[in-house]
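Supplementary Data S3. Sequence and structure tokens for construct A.
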Amino acid sequence: MTQRLDPFAAAPAQMKAWLDMSLKIAPSIEQSLLELVKIRASQINGCANCLKMHTAEARKAGESEERLYLLSAWREAPSFTARERAALAWTEALTLVSTERAPDEVYAEFAFEFSEEEQVQITLMINAINGWNRLAVGFNLFYDEKPAVARETVAA
């Protein structure tokens, strides 16, 4: 795969703004849950770059290898909490919004598990990771370095 362009070099101000926004979206949500959301959306979108980055971040946040392996089959795996299941179902519904249409029953479970503020934070995170997936897939991005490479590039 050949990278088409480096968006951090092509539009540094816009990418810095996008990155800054992404890092500030969900301050009250536990990091491990956010990483599961990012990984699940990235699995659906086929984003190797984000899968590499967020599985590494999930491990740093204490996520087990077993749960990472089972994430694509989370409905059948007993190792996910009701809160995680609600977030994952909402992630799938919004990532596949053109076909899923965010069903009422999925939202009801999501709303039961999360406060209104948390609902907004997670929904914004789902939007952000889907945006990152589209940047990475669209421009054939695959950073071989640590995830901080993007932040360091923008900060320079």
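Construct B, processed identically:
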Amino acid sequence: MHWTLNATIWALVALVLIAAEVIAPGAFMLWLGIAAAATCVLVVAMPGLALVWQMVAFAVLSLLSVFVYLRFFRSHGRASDQPSLNRRAEQLVGRVVPLMAPIIDGHGRVQIADAIWDVEGPDLPLGARVRVIGVRGMTLEVRPQD
């Protein structure tokens, strides 16, 4: 094994890519940096390897390392114990509230805490109690409270 200028360049490329990952995290440049480090090891092990084959090895190792990341390390939407934590409207499903404006032609309003929400449902008079049964955008879907 012999350290060459090409090995030094691949080591620097690996360090730059890994440093870029630290500065702008996203888990993508890290894997390219790992591929560059592996290419550096390959160049040290095979000092006479032509530059074109070094580039091919880097490309193949990059694809392989990104595939390993996507297959084994990428988060696949872990289940949360609070799936509606940052979805305020969805947290209101099931609540029973009085109408602050009657539902006319399918549209009305309710006040929940300090927020006024548009609602859709069957026509009902002012003050009728409704249950929130769903959410569509920022509009609550309601039905009369049984």
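The mean pLDDT is 87. The CA atoms of residues 17 and 23 lie 10 Å apart.
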